[in-house]
Every structure is written in C-alpha cells, then in structure tokens.
Amino acid sequence: MNAAHKEASQFVNQFNAAGELTHLLTLEGLPKEQILHILDTTQQFVSVTDPSREVRKVPLLRGKSVFNLFFENSTRTRTTFEIAAKRLSADVINLDISTSSTAKGESLLDTIDNLVAMQADIFVVRHNVSRAPIEIANHVPPHVHVVNAGDGSHQHPTQGLLDMYTMRHFKQDFRGLKVAIIGDVVHSRVAKSNIHALTTLGCEEIRVIGPESLLPSDLDMLGVKVFHSMEEGLQGVDVVMTLRIQKERMEVGQVPEGDAFFKQYGLTSSRLALAKPDAIVMHPGPMNRGVEIDSVVADGPQSVILNQVTFGIAVRMAVMSILASN
Amino acid sequence: MNAEKLYEKLLENIRQRQAGSFELAGLAMGGAWIAERLARDLGLPRFGVINVAFHRDDYAEKGMTALRTASTMPTNLPFDVNAANIILIDDVLLTGRTVRAALNELFDFGRPAQVELMVLADRGKRELPVAANFVGEKVQVPDHQILVLEKDAAGKFSFQLEERAE
C-alpha cells in the first residue's frame, strides 16, 4: 500500500450518500442528534427485556447475518453483541480468528472479501490495531455495515454510547453534569469515546485523574480538566468512571508497581465520599479489584457497573438496527 | 372532521361496556393519547401503550428513523395479556398494516382472549383484511395527504391534514 492509498483508506466516513449513519466507527464528530437518536432507540430496546414480554426477541434483522470478528480477546463485548444480534433475530457467526485463515497468512481484506461473498450484512470488528475497522469499512460494498467493537487505543463507540445511556438513565441530563475519568486514559479507547460523546452532549465538566505517564498530552485541546490527585479531582463530581490498567499495552515502569497505583489512584470508599453523595460509579470492565477499584466500592450501592453491561445489549441492538436500515 | 366530537362518540360507545371486562391498549402516539383520556374519563385504573416499531413491515425501506417521534414511548402493558379482552386503539385506520404490526407486538406479551379495534377516523383503502369494531367516523382523504391527530395544551384533540412526504 503506498502512502496516498493508505491515507485514503484511513479516511473516516460513517455516513452514506444520503447522510445516514451506515457504519459506527468513532464517536468523534458524531452529531448530537445522531447520538440522541441512538439513545432514544436504545430506550425502546430496553423494553424488549421487560419481564412481562414473553417473547424477548424482535424480527428486525431476520434473515441478516452478523459476523463477529474479534482479532483481540473479549468476553463482555463479544457476548453482548451476540445476544443483541440474536434478540434482533439475526444469524450470528463468531469467527475464531486465531484458528482462521489469517493465521495461515491471508490478508485482512482478503478475509473480509470472502466473508462478504458469504453474504455478510454486518461486521462487528474488534482489533488490536487502531483504525483497522475503518480500513474494513472503506473496503466493503455499500450494503455491508461495520461496527467498531474496539480498535487498539483509538475508539470503542458502543461502549461510549452505553456509558452515555447509563449516565442519562441515572442522571437524566448532561447539562450541569461533572464526570471524572480515572486512571489509564492514554491506552483507553473507552475514555476517548466517552470524552468525545460527553463533549458533544454538552457535559458541563469532564475531568481526568491519573499519573502524568497515563494521561495523553492533548487533553487540554479537548477541553478536559487534568488532575494528578484523587482528593482534588473527585470533589463534587456526579459520575466516577474508573478504567482498567492495561498492562498489555504498557512499557515497563509506566505505572507505579505493585499496590503503589492503588494507594495513589485506587477508588476507595473514603475517596468516593469526596464526590457528590448520589454520585454513580462506573467501570467498562474487566475490573482489577484492588488495583484501580476497591471491592467495597465495586459491589457498593453507588456502583452501576452491572447496569452498564445490561444496557450494553440494548445499545448494540439500537446501533445494529439503525445501521442495517440505512 | 371534529376530533373532539368523534372522541365523545367513542366514549359513549365504550360506556356500554362493563368496566373491568376489558383492557385498553393505545398505539403510540395518537392511540395512546386516546387510551389515556378514555381511561381517565371512564375511571379505569390503567391503560396500555403499544409501540409497533419492532414489527413494522417497512423497516427495510424506512428503518428506525421513521419512528423518531414514537421512539420515546415504548410498549408498556400494565396488565396480563393472557386471557384478557383487549381493545386496541389508534387515531387513524388506513392500510391496516400498523394494526397487523400491533397484533404481533401484543402477542409477544401473551395470548389474549379477544382483541377488538377502535379508531377515531377510518379512511378506508385497506391493504390487509382488517376491520374496526368501534369507528368515530368514516372519512375521505386524498391519497397524497395524511391525517394527523394533535393534542393541545388542554388535552383537546384536533385533526390536521398534511401533505405526504415522499
């Protein structure tokens, strides 16, 4: 691939010629109206799991094939995408990439071409390389849709949307909302998707808290307030979001070793008490208990971590049903 | 078409029924407004809302975007659908396709004993074998126009004619 070609293939376009959302690749630049439409549609899909509904399945994607392409490990995201697609009546094909043709040297786009030839309608892509889903989206024919399920340290848009849905569910309005994101922001695609969406939705104040080595340098540009102390950063916030320390993406010495991180940045009951009394605690999972969050807080009354997981199903149903109809 | 008069007529019709022998289920949004007002005027403790979004037959063409106005009013049936006598309520009956979708949605919640249909205005021109049991009025509206129920601040109903967007 020459340089010019490569640049063209990395151009992010989530919209079709009619201006409708056809892929979901990033929350950066996604208009407020689109985000709110997804959140409102999610609200409807939450009702599909209402206990009074005997048939917890709807026929919107009947006859469509959803391919889960996970080039990187995931339990929560892959499972909730699978449940979401099945509740929409789609056929779901999970590709185990480690045993697939890519292990035999087939290129990513050749694999995609073959799956398109098998009449794939939606690709759900998780990749350890940032922007790989963008490359796939720019390659597939117009009737095929791509959902980014997390790419490197770039974006995780459905996680960002489910976090927005969770905040709106518990806090109603983004105006006046103060959100603190704690820990390993530099490696976190979740943090990036959240910061973009919160900014678009008019969140009053976004803070990040962590050691300098774990915070990206361009945060001021995004209008984010940077804190290096939990005691300062947690004062008066409505939402406390802790992130997983991503050891697999780190160089040696980037994070305080052993329990040194927990001592400085671990979310404990006494630190949570600095936030508003009705503040909610969020975590995108998987959690490292005793590293970024104390078990007492993770399992405590302010924790909405498992609500996030449940809402994640409805958010993914909303995203796939909106994309498939555009 | 005086929507208030048509509403009063439907209210008088349904007063003949014994309270407690039926459940109301209005289609979002207009039908739900009618169901809400009937429940209040009849002193009923509850009414249901049906959102047909998941069962529409034009999803492939129009998608979820066509449902923006109704998307914040999800299906909510605060009674056991199994063995219930249910009166489905909509503002306007035309092709019958929305009623077909509403029946599918209703049956996802259980197996009713009986389902009847009540509409304020019946435009005719059915595309499916659907008929209403309670009709406010049969009306003639040109194909290129749509009939839209509106509710003012005082809760009063009126019909507006709008050009069909293509």
What's the SSE blueprint?
The complex is a heterodimer of chains A (326) and B (166).
Chain A: H1 3-9, H2 32-46, E1 65-70, H3 76-87, E2 91-96, H4 108-117, E3 122-127, H5 132-139, E4 145-151, H6 157-171, E5 178-182, H7 189-200, E6 205-209, E7 225-227, H8 230-233, E8 239-242, H9 260-265, H10 269-272, E9 280-282, H11 295-298, H12 305-324
Parallel strand pairs in A: 1-2, 1-3, 3-4, 5-6, 5-8, 6-7, 8-9
Helix pairs in contact in A: 2-6, 2-12, 3-12, 6-7, 6-12
Chain B: H1 3-15, E1 23-27, H2 30-42, E2 48-50, H3 59-62, E3 85-93, H4 97-107, E4 114-122, E5 134-138, E6 145-151, E7 157-163
Parallel strand pairs in B: 1-2, 1-3, 3-4, 4-5
Antiparallel strand pairs in B: 6-7
For the CA atoms, what is the radius of gyration of chain A? 20 Å
Mean pLDDT of chain A: 91
Residue stretches of chain B low in confidence (pLDDT < 50, at least 5 long) are: none
User: In whole angstroms, how far apart are the ends of chain B?
Assistant: 25 Å
- What is the total tally of β strands of chain B? 7
| Fraction of residues in helix of chain B | 10-25%
What characteristic shape of chain A results from the CA principal axes? globular
Number of contiguous helices of chain A: 12
Distance between the termini of chain A: 30 Å
Helix content of chain A: 25-40%
Major beta-sheet overview of chain B: 5 strands, parallel
